[in-house]
Hints:
- The chain has one domain (20-206, 221-454): Growth Hormone, Chain: A (Up-down Bundle), CATH 1.20.1250.20.
- 69% of the residues lie in helices and 0% in strands.
- It has 20 helices and no strands.
- Helix 3 packs antiparallel against helix 17.
Amino acid sequence: MxxxxxxxxxxxxxxxxxxxxxxxxxxxxxxxxxxxxxxSYGLLDVLNKHFQTVLGITKLESTGLQVVYFGGGYxxxxxxxxxxxxxxxxxxxxxxxxxFYSIGAIMFWPTAHFxxxxxxxxxxxxxxxxxxxxxxxxxxxxxxxxxxxxxxxxERCGVFHRPLIASKFFFSGENANSLTNVQFVYLxxxxxxxxxxxxxxxxxxxxxxxxALATQTTADNPAIDHYGAEVGSGPLYKQYNxxxxxxxxxxxxxxxxxxxxxxxxxxxxxxxxxxAEGSNMLSYxxxxxxxxxxxxxxxATVFQADFxxxxxxxxxxxxxxxxxxxxxxxxxxxxxxxxxxxAPMYPTIFTLGTANLGRHTERAAGILVMGVSGGAVFTPIQxxxxxxxxxxxxxLVPLCGFLYVLGYVTIHWLRHGRHIxxxxxxxxxxxxxxxxxxxxxxxxxxxxxxxxxxx
Length: 455
């Protein structure tokens, strides 16, 4: 999951490392990591329903996968990965992440093979443990890769075909009540992780020296707020925009994860579709998400990011409200449509929350990534509601997440010039590759006034 809020790293790396065209191969390897966590995240939503069927667990119990994936990986292990990155660099951190990823995937084989249907809780506990190890690996990979390159759409390219495969391997014929194919799918995942790990081991992955980072950081010209003060000049806990952006990210990811996690349940209970058909429709929804990212990227060249996200959030809320009250195939169609409008939310919130923070940029980026842990909180809540009142009613949970996103982005839009059309960018490039927010005419005037005061 994750990622999508950063720009690509600078093409030139000083201090005796690779430059220019020599970066193409290692950068391509880093981008390939997005397919790995897209692959795994796409399977996660499908396994939710499959384990309910095979192991006879409740919807609430099945959300244990999301809890350890987003809570264990992104909330708990991301700080560990960040410390390894700081001490040992990108290559060592990526290799550590790939190791965790491959070990967790290969452990699905013995877990599925020795699962006893007579003791479903123990069997599911084994799968949860495997998912936790995979999540630690993915959190490590994303922590390191985000500093190199995050391409807005690529993170989902490895996702949409997973439910298509699952409809055949998990929900068709004898596979519908078997864990055998879970072994083979994750064996393939482990092999893919190991293969990429070998490529990384022999690659000359460029690092950025601390001296270069320090020089680049001090060379930045911090933005000036409406009161003539340097943005980011105060302590981190007083960067209120970043704090509220973190909460918005937490709520958005929680909404996104719950919408996808219970998609097949919704298609089955409210739409009358089979699990295999629901899995196919989930793949169509994820394709819609990818198309939505492309469309939003194009629109962002015309409209101001916060204004566009405000419109998207309004539409998502309206559709989500219909989903929670609808019956039949129309509700499933509306559920697919939500994926289009939620597509640009993560990267836009990330950009708004980390803009113009000066010396706090790196820590703020880490905090915003930890917002992904919202997926570990929202899913159990929705699972409990789905067990008691039905899946359709449980979709009021992501609706609450979208409401907060709308509140955050509306306030941001009101406080930053109320622009509808895109304002010319003024970008402060930081060593992490994070792009600064758009600077309005009011902010430029405030900066000029501040300069005059200092003179």
